[in-house]
């Protein structure tokens, strides 16, 4: 999926463009601002948010500790429920599996509910190439599809757009006379999507949680479109990352409100479905996607990021995400968690620049509902990038030299003086930062003795 | 109590007045402070860039320099966080370091250092002080006890200023955009000074203020506390 240009260069150019768009940044700030208000209210409904978070973290960690066992239990229970399970090690394999199911049933039209893993494996393009119509039925994703854009955010795919911009998209792409009233816009989408639901012969959804104990698939949504995707068409295909497991169905009592609160500030998302087997006369296929997740597991402490429930809280709090926006990353998963996992999930390019594109402020770690130490993992990613020789040679030389200077107080003093002289002849630090002063603290200290 | 002074390298080289103010405050409280002159850098730039073996050598060095002190005080949340929270990741036992406000309020139980600073100020939480050391109230408690000082909170006091060490150099455009958001919030308070425990944040904030809000200045917490 990469152009000839490297991901790092693309990121620098995209972020440069993004920060220059002050109006776009204002829209994002406004949308994120109302999110923060709702989440703050949502957290106040908890007697003890920190305890809920610790519990959730421990539960997901338990899954990772016996990952193989939970996966096998889930598989066995799906089969016992009458469903079928497919294992996909790569994106390519996952696409092939879905295409084979579609061909087998002569599928011509697919309705999809929101799913980041299908974005990750570029499923829509593969289906369309095979001559199959795909319609995104989540309103935000539908707008993305009309605009030919990837989601801007893992939870709120069009958070960068104003209502007016959505109206323009509808007028242009659907050839309708639409005002920018929200009710009118949703009615237009509703009419189009109803028709798509009726003609679809396959429904594709993601999964928020996979329940090992029962083989159930838990889907969380606000619009009711996912329900229509899996209950209308005769064939339902679920795509899910292999980290989506929870041990038991009672875990949802903790995780459903946690996801809703961190994701949107709701106490519970509007529709929560549990699918235990195919609909009468239909088929249920579950495609379990690895696509680099086991690579992340093998990485080391960063495996903690496999706890992620994709709530988007770390994106919303991140001052970098707020200023550069989701599209600049060039990844399926944006923001802090995306920067932690993408270098492991994707081997099509070097993505370690994302680990450096952080001021390490740690706001992400504070809001993560499953206690992932995101900014510490960015540090670990940097360490690993250097260990794997992904750093620039001049930077390595620079730090060797810097170490040599810092190992001796005399060399340190002389390096400071040299920089002072350089400053005296007009040299400035990067971005106009000051140069060392003539009389340092230690000069003052030795002088006053 | 044997008190060692840890003056981060960029404070020593760029903002010596912050180190001097730290000494002034501590001496005013009757403490005898020592400055081991063999100290250089805590290793944070290397650590944050991924050069952990280089960082480890300086961490070992720093731990040796401050060996034998009961407490080590530094006017920087960032460098204290590096020593206390990240040295263990390098396998180095950290010396007992404290950020200045943390040392005064938590360790000594002092909230009034006898300072006077007639100005309206707003406080910027450095990320390391706030999220690694969990210092939120301590600097504010000290400021509230400064005579003739009015403390006003800005929106987004906890939002990063965008410095982040090498981040500011590697991604100057993102860093600058973050700085702009920060300084707009600070300027809206009508304060005359942005105060912080971290001179690196203040250096970043000052770049933006010089261009867009020339009436708003920066000053370190140590300097405010040293003023009479």
Summarize the structure in short.
The complex is a heterodimer of chains A (449) and B (228). Chain A is of the alpha/beta class and 449 residues long. Among the domains of chain A are: 45-291, Rossmann fold; 393-448.
Describe this structure in words.
- The complex is a heterodimer of chains A (449) and B (228).
- Chain A is α/β, with parallel strands linked by helices.
- Among the domains of chain A are: 45-291, Rossmann fold (3-Layer(aba) Sandwich); 393-448.
- Helices cover 54% and strands 10% of the residues of chain A.
- A six-stranded parallel beta sheet of chain A has the order 1-10-7-4-2-3, sandwiched between helices. In chain A, strands 8-5-6-9 form a four-stranded mixed beta sheet.
- The longest helix of chain A is centred in the N-terminal third of the chain and has 23 residues, at 22-44.
- The radius of gyration of chain A is 25 Å and the shape is globular.
- Chain A starts with 6 loop residues before the first helix and ends with a helix.
- The mean pLDDT of chain A is 96.
- Chain B has 228 residues and is of the alpha/beta class.
- Helix content of chain B is 50%, strand content 14%.
- The longest helix of chain B has 17 residues, at 172-188.
- Chain B is globular, with a radius of gyration of 17 Å.
- Classes of the chains: A alpha/beta (449), B alpha/beta (228).
- The interface between A and B is large, with 58 and 56 residues.
Q: How are the elements arranged and paired?
A:
The complex is a heterodimer of chains A (about 450) and B (about 230).
Chain A: H1 7-20, H2 22-44, H3 49-65, H4 67-80, E1 84-88, H5 91-104, E2 109-112, H6 116-120, H7 123-129, E3 133-136, H8 139-147, H9 163-174, H10 182-199, E4 202-205, E5 209-211, E6 216-221, H11 225-231, E7 235-241, E8 245-246, H12 252-264, E9 271-275, E10 283-289, H13 293-299, H14 313-317, H15 319-324, H16 335-345, H17 353-356, H18 363-367, H19 374-387, H20 393-406, H21 409-424, H22 441-448
Parallel strand pairs in A: 1-10, 2-3, 2-4, 4-7, 5-8, 7-10
Antiparallel strand pairs in A: 5-6, 6-9
Chain B: E1 3-5, H1 9-14, H2 16-28, E2 33-34, H3 44-49, H4 52-65, E3 71-74, H5 77-86, E4 97-99, H6 100-107, E5 116-123, H7 127-132, H8 137-144, E6 147-151, H9 166-170, H10 172-188, E7 193-196, H11 199-212, E8 217-220, H12 221-226
Parallel strand pairs in B: 1-2, 1-3, 3-4, 5-6, 5-7, 7-8
Helix pairs in contact in B: 6-8, 10-11
């Amino acid at each position: 999926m990469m152009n000839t240009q490297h991901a790092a260069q693309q990121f620098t150019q995209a972020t440069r463009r993004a920060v220059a768009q002050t109006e776009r940044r204002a829209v994002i700030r406004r949308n994120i601002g109302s999110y923060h208000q709702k989440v703050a209210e949502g957290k106040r409904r908890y007697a003890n948010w920190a305890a809920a978070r610790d519990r959730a973290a421990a539960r997901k960690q338990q899954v990772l500790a016996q990952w193989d066992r939970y996966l096998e239990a889930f598989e066995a229970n799906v089969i016992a429920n009458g469903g079928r399970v497919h294992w996909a090690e790569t994106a390519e394999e996952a696409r092939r599996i879905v295409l084979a199911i579609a061909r087998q049933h002569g599928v011509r039209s697919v309705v999809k509910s929101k799913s980041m893993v299908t974005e990750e494996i570029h499923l829509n393009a593969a289906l369309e190439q095979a001559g199959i119509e795909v319609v995104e039925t989540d309103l935000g994703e539908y707008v993305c599809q009309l605009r030919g854009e990837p989601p801007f955010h893992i939870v709120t795919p069009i958070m960068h757009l104003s209502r007016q911009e959505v109206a323009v998209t509808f007028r242009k792409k659907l050839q309708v006379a639409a005002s920018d009233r929200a009710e009118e816009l949703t009615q237009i989408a509703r009419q189009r999507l109803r028709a798509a639901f009726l003609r679809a012969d396959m429904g594709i959804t993601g999964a928020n949680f996979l329940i090992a104990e029962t083989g159930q698939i838990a889907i969380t949504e606000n619009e009711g479109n996912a329900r229509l995707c899996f209950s209308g068409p005769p064939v339902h295909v679920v795509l899910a990352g292999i980290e989506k497991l929870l041990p038991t169905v009672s875990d949802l009592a903790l995780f459903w409100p946690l996801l809703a609160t961190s994701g949107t500030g709701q106490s519970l998302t509007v529709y929560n479905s549990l699918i235990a087997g195919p609909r009468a006369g239909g088929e249920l296929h579950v495609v379990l996607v690895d696509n680099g997740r086991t690579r992340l597991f093998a990485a080391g402490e960063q495996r903690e990021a496999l706890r992620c429930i994709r709530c988007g809280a770390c994106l919303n709090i991140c001052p970098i995400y707020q200023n550069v926006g989701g599209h600049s990353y060039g990844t399926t998963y944006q923001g802090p968690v995306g920067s932690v996992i993408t270098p492991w999930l994707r081997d099509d390019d070097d993505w370690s620049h994302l680990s450096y594109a952080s001021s390490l402020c740690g706001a992400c770690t504070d809001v993560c509902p499953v206690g992932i130490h995101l900014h510490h993992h960015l540090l670990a990613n940097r360490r690993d990038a250097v260990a794997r020789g992904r750093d620039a040679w001049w930077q390595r030389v620079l730090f060797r030299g810097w170490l040599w200077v810092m190992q001796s107080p005399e060399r340190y003093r002389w390096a400071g003086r040299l920089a002072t002289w350089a400053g005296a002849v007009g040299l400035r630090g990067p971005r106009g930062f000051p140069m060392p002063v003539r009389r340092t603290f230690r000069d003052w200290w030795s002088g006053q003795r | 109590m044997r008190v060692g002074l840890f003056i981060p390298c960029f404070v020593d080289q760029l903002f010596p007045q912050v180190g001097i103010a730290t000494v002034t405050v501590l001496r005013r409280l009757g403490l005898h402070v020592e400055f081991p002159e063999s100290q250089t850098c805590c290793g944070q730039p290397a650590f944050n860039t991924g050069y952990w073996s280089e960082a480890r050598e300086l961490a070992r060095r720093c731990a040796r320099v401050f060996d034998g002190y009961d407490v080590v005080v530094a006017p920087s949340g960032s460098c204290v966080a590096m020593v206390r929270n990240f040295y263990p990741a390098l396998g180095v036992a950290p010396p007992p370091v404290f950020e200045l406000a943390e040392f005064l309020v938590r360790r000594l139980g002092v909230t009034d250092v006898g300072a006077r600073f007639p100005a309206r100020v707003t406080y910027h939480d450095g990320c390391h002080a706030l999220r690694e050391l969990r210092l939120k109230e301590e600097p504010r408690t000290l400021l509230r006890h400064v005579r003739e000082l009015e403390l006003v909170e800005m929106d987004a006091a906890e939002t990063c200023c965008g410095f982040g060490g090498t981040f500011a150099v590697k991604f100057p455009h993102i860093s600058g955009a973050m700085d702009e958001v920060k300084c707009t919030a600070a300027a809206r308070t009508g304060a005359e000074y942005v105060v912080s425990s971290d001179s690196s944040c203040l250096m970043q904030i000052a770049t933006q203020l010089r261009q867009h809000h020339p009436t708003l200045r920066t000053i370190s917490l140590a300097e405010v506390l040293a003023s009479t």
